[in-house]
């Protein structure tokens, strides 16, 4: 039987399941475990990945929240057998390096997306550079985001960005309510692309940058690239693979 470490969101349903699973299967500390089982929704799964990614343990999620795209169906029975049959999906996070108006530098990881958003009623004015070359001199918008394939069905899709297959080695760059240039609707970038976004008027038109749920306010510029060193492994039931659900999402009405 695999050595399991359980984590759960604070909801009553997830906490009750946590007690039940600990009683059925026992539990071991995270630093001696073979696998982490996360109970909750997608938001809690992202918290789990951020908290435990340095341990290099596979994570198996079970849905006990409002959204569960990254989760398997919850079932208390036969958990060791499900873990044994589960298939691994490798995710590479984005690395965000933000510089604030005051000159401080902030680094953070994003497994879904890095998003930039205006902080006030005035639209943001952004300059977009790829591999050091200016691609958009002035983008007037509410914001912009860069998404991983795993995150492409989240905020990126809501902003009318493309759904990206896992393993496609590309990223989605999607504007949020763009005003100028009017016809620009985003781009699909090779995963090796170095993205830099400069805030053209950070004092009059302040902008925040968010890596998943970690926000940095009043930024002057931000650089984004896919990590080549850090990875996480998500486990999925064979009949519930993330690749299949991302494909099916493109045919939802």
Description:
The protein is an alpha+beta fold. It has two domains: 107 residues, Probable inorganic polyphosphate/atp-NAD kinase, domain 1 (Rossmann fold), CATH 3.40.50.10330; 133 residues, Probable inorganic polyphosphate/atp-NAD kinase, domain 2 (Tumour Suppressor Smad4, Sandwich). Helix content is 17%, strand content 39%. It is built from five helices and 17 strands. A six-stranded antiparallel sheet has the order 6-5-16-13-8-9, with no helix packed on it. The protein has a six-stranded antiparallel sheet with strand order 12-11-10-7-14-15, with no helix packed on it. Strands 1-2-3-17-4 form a five-stranded mixed sheet, sandwiched between helices. A hairpin with a 4-residue loop joins β5 and β6. The longest helix has 14 residues. It is elongated. The chain starts with a strand and ends with a helix. The mean pLDDT is 93.
């Amino acid at each position: 039987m695999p050595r399991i470490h359980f984590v759960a969101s604070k909801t009553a349903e997830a906490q009750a399941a946590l007690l039940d699973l600990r009683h059925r299967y026992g539990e071991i500390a995270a630093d001696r475990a073979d696998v982490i089982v996360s109970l909750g929704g997608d938001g809690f799964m992202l918290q789990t990945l951020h908290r435990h990614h340095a341990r290099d343990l596979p994570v198996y999620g079970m849905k006990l929240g409002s959204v569960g795209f990254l989760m398997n169906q919850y079932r208390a029975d036969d958990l060791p057998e499900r873990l044994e049959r589960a298939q691994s999906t490798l995710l590479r996070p984005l690395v965000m390096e933000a510089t604030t108006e005051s000159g401080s530098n902030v680094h953070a990881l994003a497994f879904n997306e890095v998003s930039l958003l205006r902080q006030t009623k005035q639209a943001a004015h952004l300059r977009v550079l790829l591999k050091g070359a200016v691609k958009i001199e002035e983008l007037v918008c509410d914001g912009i985001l860069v998404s991983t394939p795993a995150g492409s069905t989240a905020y990126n899709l809501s902003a009318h960005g493309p759904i990206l297959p896992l393993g496609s080695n590309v990223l989605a760059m999607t504007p949020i309510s763009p005003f100028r240039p009017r016809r620009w609707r985003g781009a699909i970038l090779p995963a090796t692309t170095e993205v830099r976004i400069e805030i053209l008027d950070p004092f009059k038109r302040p902008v925040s940058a968010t890596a998943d749920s970690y926000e940095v306010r009043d930024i002057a510029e931000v650089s984004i690239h896919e990590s080549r060193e850090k990875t996480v492994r998500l486990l999925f039931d064979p009949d519930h693979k993330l690749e299949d659900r991302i494909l099916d999402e493109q045919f939802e009405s």
